[in-house]
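Changelog-adjacent note: as of this version, every example in the card shows the full chain rather than a window. The one below runs 565 residues end to end.
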Amino acid sequence: MKLSRINDPSDLEIVTPVEVPDHPGYYYFPDDNRVMVSRDGRVLDQITKLPRNLKNSYQGYINVKLSVYDQNSQNANYQLHRILARTFIGRPSRHVNKDFSSLTVNHIDGDKLNNSLDNLEWCTNAENIEHASINGLFSRSNKIEAYNPLLGDKKIFNSIGLCSKYFDLDKSVLRRHLSGKDSGKVKKNGYIFRLASSTDWNVSLEEYKEYRDFLVMKLEYRCLKLFEQFDYYVFNNLEAVYKFLCISKKSLRQRLKISNPCFINGYLITKTLRKEDDMSSSPVYDRATSAFPFSVGTSLSLESLFIGPNASIDPDRQIPQQVNITDYNELWINVGTLFRNLYTAIPRDRVQDTVSRDCVDALVDEMTQIRELVNEQSQGKTRVIYYICSYKGLEKEFKGATRRIPNTDKQKFYQNLLDETLNKLVRRVKETRELDIKEFDVNIFPDERVKALVITHYAVDLLSAKRFRSMDLLESHTGVLKKFNTWYTKYFSGKELMMIPFNEHLIKFFGDNDLIVPFHFKVRRVIQEVAERNKWNYATSMSKVRSDIGTIKDHFARNEILKML
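Full-length structure tokens:
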């Protein structure tokens, strides 16, 4: 059966396969030059030079097991259709900037065993599913339909597993609902689900608002609508709530035990019926936002990465620069900075009414949405890493430095609220596993050397940049992208310190705005004069710094500075 293609053959990038010199008719597989393939699907490996056995996988595709080994010393396994497509077929122009790992190979006629070149084409997973749906390639018995009655959007999945993975659902709960009387009433992110049917959806939105006792409010910005409006869903028992949210009953009970109200999947849940004005009584829910429904400082930083669904809080604001999130392997976000941004967004006359429970709920919601936003916009290429640093070993790490301590009542209130919020947040995510948070003392330790973008207001965090392949800073409130050569601004009064290299030695003298008290002004002035005289800059080495400090005429000052260096 020959079906219509997704791509126009004239709109494909030109591919020039490289022929193996001593094996006419065979070409190198671009992803692994140890693998050779012919246009008719014969495969050799470099070790044996013999044709490899082809085997059908449980998914219906033809797999090739080779004698070449991957980095884990395991026999390399490839799917034949991907080897052929990668070697001989170009991507359509709309996908040329996407990595091949993010694309799938479509069998035009729906036959997974037909790997002729004119039957293969590159596409996205969504395009692949749509093609299969339009051409009736899914068997009705396995197909799952997801429908959003508000948006009129329908998605079709080949299995419960694919559907549950796409929506981050509990597979067993979804399967139980789909086979029972609740089919078509299970909700997740505005979608309802059922087994495939030839009949149209006949949905009354009102029937989902006729419950009691349990109130579930979904913020409209999840559907990119008005932020300040709410949808109300009221339930008369706990079972109805966990079916609605498509999570386990145990998980729901644990979350409500930890925090009431709590955020789950973008919904705010409370055990007792509360009116909108009761909900808004917490100052946390009245905090300032911007283009994104996050605390204004956080939103302003993300506006340099993405286009928000709402207008910026400052209509005259110019985005400093547009940052491509896919340029980075990981986005590291200090949870303490998210809290700082939340706290400063609360109306000043109500900040003393803030409680840690509301802060935890708001942070979980922001963190969940940021993770989903980054994953969607980067197509899974960029990971979001949330982390918390206790900074308890700061004075030991930076010998001679003096740590800042809260002195005023306002400072003490902020610090106590911060500590209480972070402790509760860590306990909650460990029990619910809704988020992953890395915990450190002073230094940050990535799993591998990657290119990272970091959002933090703690200057000390930037000193861990040497453990990354590279690190850039995205400032809160401004959204300015700062490379290493501008990190001197993170010193205390740093705008005047362009000549001072940013490192763990000099931060003990110049301090920062959050953790380290700057040294006496006279000592800092001496170092600045030496720096100006010897033309220091961000790249000046510490050996050069020590050498120049050694020229200070004041014997006492020179020795004291060198002692700390």
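Structural remarks: Residues 144-209 form one domain.
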